[in-house]
Amino acid sequence: MLRIIGIDPGSRFTGYGIIESDGIKSQYIHSGYIKVKGDELPEKLGYIFAELSVVIKEWKPEVMAIEKVFVGKNVDSALKLGQARGAAICAGVSAGLSVGEYTPTTIKKAVVGRGRAGKEQIQEIMRIILKLSNKLQVDEADALAVALCHAHNNTRLGQLYKNLKTTGAGW
Question: Which of 14, 27, 32, 44 has the highest CB neighbour number within 10 Å of its CB?
Answer without folding.
Answer: 14
